[in-house]
Each structure stands twice: as structure tokens, then as C-alpha cells.
Model the fold of this input.
Amino acid sequence: MTGKRFKPGKADKLLDPKRNEILSPEQVISLLKVKETDHVADLGAGNGYFTLPLAQVAETVYAVDIEKQMLELLKERGSHMSNIQYIVSDLEEIKLPDRVADHALVAFVLHEVPNLTKAFTELKRILKPGQRLLVLEWEKIEMEMGPPIHERMSSEQMKEVFIDNGLEPEVHYFHEAVYGISAVV
Done:
């Protein structure tokens, strides 16, 4: 994929209320069926668009991001919550123990990961058996929000990545520009 990362200086864009019209955290929590005893890995947590709502429901949220600056912004926003663990890590070598998560959410970052095979190996490693992985991405169409079209992966491309990594994908459409693909690991 592109290897080109989102710049922390643009973090305020991640909290744009328009995002909620396209995909709300509540839709994601519902799709994952998060319970109060769950441990959820939010990979590419950024400044917490999904992390903070997940932390209101789950026992523990592992907020993982490659950018320390993004996690610092998240720490400020989540300073009142004690159930978030902050981990600076890429997705090709996730700094979490084996089988630690009941659910894994990878939101709008896989198009930035250079080696998807390594990333999927890691995603499967951190998930408990029989639990759900959910990847959210921008559909490969022109739109004001999100990365340029040449950096996007279509839902069909992402579905093939899941299949190539031994997973049975289920596609979810939230908006014409946003899709999710989930699978039980």
C-alpha cells in the first residue's frame, strides 16, 4: 500500500462532525457486539474517534497508533478514563501480547500499511480465537473527506486481502464512501 501516513497536524479533521453522519462509533460498537467484559484493540486509534466511545462500553481498550503525537492528543481527550492503554506501534509488529483482544478495529489506516500480509498475521495473533476483526476503509471513489483516490483500496480489493490471509470476509456498507469488512479469526 502507500506507506504514506496521516499527519498529526491535521488531527482536528478526525473529529469533524461530518464523520458521524458517515459512520458513527455506535454503529461500529454494535457491529462488533462489544460487551463490558471485552478487551478491544483500536488499531490506528488516532485522537480517539472510536477509542473513547469504545472505552465507555469495554473493560479495556488498547489504543494503538504509530504516531506518538496522536496518542498524546488522545490521552488529553481521554484523561478522565482509566481503562485505555496507549501503545505506540505500527501494524506490522503490533506491540501487544498474543490473544489479548476480544475484538480488533482497524479504522482507515490499512491503506497506509506497506506490508498487509505482515499486518494481517499480527491482527490474527492478537485476537482471541473465534473473535471478530473489523476493518474500515474509504471506498475508491472521489470524495471531499479521506485520502486521495489513488491511496484508497476498494471494498473488492480489501475483500481479496482478507481471503488471501485465510479469512472469510463479510462486507458492510455504511455510506457510499465508507465500507467495513469483518471476519471471525
